[in-house]
Structure formats: structure tokens, C-alpha cells
Amino acid sequence: AYPCIYDNFYSNVSPLRCIFMCCQIQMSWTASPVIRAGAWIPSLSTHSEAQQALHLALEFLAADPSSQTVGISALLDYEGFSMSKLLSANVGLLKQCTEFVFKCLPFRVKAIHVIRQSFVYDILMSIIRHLISRKYVERIHLHGTNFEDLHKELPVDILPEEYGGRGPAIDFEAFWSLVDEQEPSFVENNGYGYLKTKKKETGFAK
């Protein structure tokens, strides 16, 4: 399923490394991936390519025993997320993404903190809330530009200055260099699954 994501699972994400995704912020008690959804530029990368980058980053986090033990609290920055970007999104891929995040990864999503969102996010959320359970909807917290409210949930010592924090600047290059080191693992894991035979039967690979 979804060959647009899993075919060439690693080769298509380079244009998105400094545009879409970063998971560099971490704490001793939980990991906090930062997702700059508003920085996605559909004319440069498709929804499936953006989602592929997200999958890689989350797979990287999932391999960390501390993430598996204590879970994650994600920070989603929707600054710049426009109506044209929403119209470039694929509902089927959104459904796949929610299933992947909430059902397929070996860590608990403790909270999702949304910042700098506009009315376009409200439209997006009206779609997503039909794809996830009420339990997960209740874990989504909207902060807008009220970073003081955000600081009650995520310590200022780990947040970068642009989010009102005192932590180090977000370093996309440093994060993706760590992901690059795990490329052999991604390639190996992507070889597992079900394969279709010529008779349209299925057989388990490896």
C-alpha cells in the first residue's frame, strides 16, 4: 500500500530537509519533534514526498528506546500554511498518515501542540477529526501565537528563541545527518512485507 511513500523510501526527501521537518528538540522526559507544516512548498515537493520525510523522521525517533518508553509531545508550526497548500493535500494520504502515527509506531503520542495556525488549519482539522479517535483529538492543543501558554507545556529551556524559548536554534542539518547514519536500517526494514505474485496472490517477504 502507498507505493508513493515506500518506493524509494529514502531517496526523495533531500529537498524537504530544511523546509518541512525537524525533530532536533529533545528533553530528558520526552522527545519533541518539530514539524513546520507551513513551510511545505507544493511546487517544490509533492504531498507524498513531504509525508515520506515525516515517516523517516518518525521512524528515526521510534528507534530510540526513550521515545518508546516515555512517548513524544509534538510541536506543529502552521505559519504560512495557506489555502493553496491545503488544496494540494491528498485526503487519502492524510488518512494513511494518521493511521501510521497513532497505530503503527511503537511510542505514545502524549500531546500535539499547534502554534501560529490560521483559519486554514481549522478547515484541515475538520477533516482530520473524522480520521482519528476522540481520544487523540483531545490531545491536540492550540496555542496560536500565545507562546506563554506553550511554555506551560514545553519548557522554555528546550525551545528555540523563535518560539519564545532559551534553547538552541533548530538545526535541520544536524538532525538529518543523524537520520542519514540510519539509512541501511531504513533500507533493510523497507524490504519486509507482503509481495504480490503473478497470480495476484500474496506471499510474505523475508
Automatic annotation (TrEMBL):
InterPro entries: CRAL-TRIO_dom, CRAL-TRIO_dom_sf. Pfam families: CRAL_TRIO. Residues 53-171 form the CRAL-TRIO domain. Coiled coil: none annotated. Transmembrane segments: none annotated. It comes from the Eukaryota. CDD domains: SEC14. This is CRAL-TRIO domain-containing protein. It comes from Ixodes scapularis (Black-legged tick).
